[in-house]
Amino acid sequence: ERNQADVSEAKAGRTDLIFLIRFRHCCLLRNQRCIVAYLYDRLLRIRALRWEYGSILPSAIQFHMSAEEVEWFNRYKKSLATYMRSVGGEEGLDLTQDMKPPKSLYIEVRCLRDYGEFEIDDGTTVLLKKNSQHFLPRWKCEQLIRQGILEHILS
């Protein structure tokens, strides 16, 4: 506001204010660039959360997000799901699986909290109760490991 008032005075003939106006304008542009860089970094972090936690964010993380960020996350989630359905044939391709190359197809996991029945592709169901250990296909468990329901037991 002060800058606008000084611009009006400079147009009226006070040329000594031009340097002050330019300085303030440069400061405003710098602040704008910093804010845009901050917001872009937050969007990159929110995008990484989709890959790390899956389509449902923990409430502790979602609590610290603004309404616009939650809306952006939901749009990104839908866009990614649409893309994954469009590639890989009839069932689509889940790109969020196997974030690291697997060393084996089956892993030993321990259940950290009660989850209930968990169905594997061959039709068998496993009851995931707290502190129970199972030998399950890696690609079926990876999402539950990221959500904190299962823990990979390293031998």
Q: What does this protein look like?
A:
With 155 residues, this protein is α+β, with helices and mostly antiparallel strands. The chain folds into two domains: 1-86, Methane Monooxygenase Hydroxylase, Chain G, domain 1, CATH 1.20.58.1030; 106-152, Ribosomal Protein L9, domain 1, CATH 3.40.5. 52% of the residues lie in helices and 14% in strands. The protein has helices at residues 2-11, 18-53, 59-63, 67-86, 138-147, and strands at 106-111, 116-119, 125-128, 133-137, 150-152. The strands form two sheets. Strands 4-1-5 form a three-stranded antiparallel sheet, with helices on one face. The longest helix has 36 residues, at 18-53.
Compose a concise summary of this entry:
With 155 residues, the chain is α+β, with helices and mostly antiparallel strands.
**Helical element count?**
5
What class would the helix/strand composition place it in? Answer: alpha+beta
Q: How many beta-strand segments?
A: 5
CATH topology of the largest domain: Methane Monooxygenase Hydroxylase, Chain G, domain 1
Radius of gyration: 26 Å
Q: How much helix is in the residues? A: 40-55%
What is the number of independent domains?
A: 2
CATH class term of the largest domain: Mainly Alpha
Described by strand count, sense and barrel closure, the largest sheet is:
3 strands, antiparallel
Query: Beta fraction of the residues?
Result: 5-15%
Identify the overall geometry.
Answer: elongated
Second rung of CATH, namely the architecture of the largest domain: Up-down Bundle
H and E string: HHHHEEEEHE
Strand order of the largest sheet: 4-1-5
- Give the N-to-C terminal Cα separation: 66 Å
Low-confidence stretches: none
Name the average pLDDT: 88
